[in-house]
Design goal:
Length: 221
């Protein structure tokens, strides 16, 4: 009798060594428990320099061939892992804890994706049915995994401001510098300019997101 196959999913982006050691340890545990394991850390020979779309295409294709999904800790912070969990739940696959091997029953409810299951089923025909408003989505985008990727907005914008000051040095008055608060304000201007040309919901989400990070830089959040 063939072993059942489990797809191993979890966070990678922004973590030391892309969290590969945790993936390898979990894969060994799952093998010991009698599973054949599809370890997403092994995709493309462990390369980490490809586009997100290529990884997602490969991940989805492999998940469709598996009998279950195993989730590593903090999977909720990973956009890719949330998508894989949503797909597994929609396919009716059992979802297990990659550390303990325990069945998660009921399976996790994925609520942090930008589009609803109904929107996916409808081919994105009814975008007004998104479960989140613009402000809710902006709040999620400026929290959680983004801090792992970029750090606190104040630190991220200080670095960006220094780069902008160097690029624009010849255009600044003597002694003038760009500071951290200038960055979200300028980015809001970019998004508004794009919105003025053509409506796109993401522009409004980004405007709200940059407004929130400006408040975080100011210490209001």
């Amino acid at each position: 009798m063939n072993k059942r196959c489990v797809y191993l999913s979890g966070p990678m982006t922004g973590l030391p060594e892309h969290n590969f050691p945790a993936f390898c340890d979990a894969a060994e545990r799952l093998h010991g428990a009698g599973w054949d394991v599809v370890n997403s850390a092994d995709n493309f020979g462990g390369r980490t320099d490809l586009s997100r779309a290529r990884y997602l295409r490969m991940d989805a294709a492999l998940l469709l061939q598996c009998d279950a999904l195993a989730l590593l800790p903090e999977w909720e912070d990973s956009e890719g892992a949330r998508l894989e969990c949503l797909l597994a739940v929609e396919l009716g696959l059992p979802v297990i804890d990659a550390e303990t091997g325990a069945l998660l029953d009921p399976p996790p409810r994925v609520i942090t994706l930008a589009v609803s299951t109904e929107a996916i089923r409808g081919g994105f025909a009814n975008r007004q049915e998104r479960p989140e408003g613009v402000l809710d989505e902006a709040a999620q985008l400026t929290s959680g995994a983004r801090h792992g990727d970029y750090g606190h907005p104040r630190d991220d914008f200080v670095r960006t401001a220094r780069m902008w000051s160097g690029v624009l040095a010849s255009k600044l008055r003597p002694g003038a510098e760009i500071d951290a608060m200038d960055v979200p304000l300028c980015m809001i201007a970019v998004k508004l300019a794009r919105q003025a040309y053509r409506h796109k919901r993401d522009n409004l989400v980004d405007v709200a997101g940059y407004a929130r990070t400006a408040a975080m830089v100011a210490g209001d959040e």
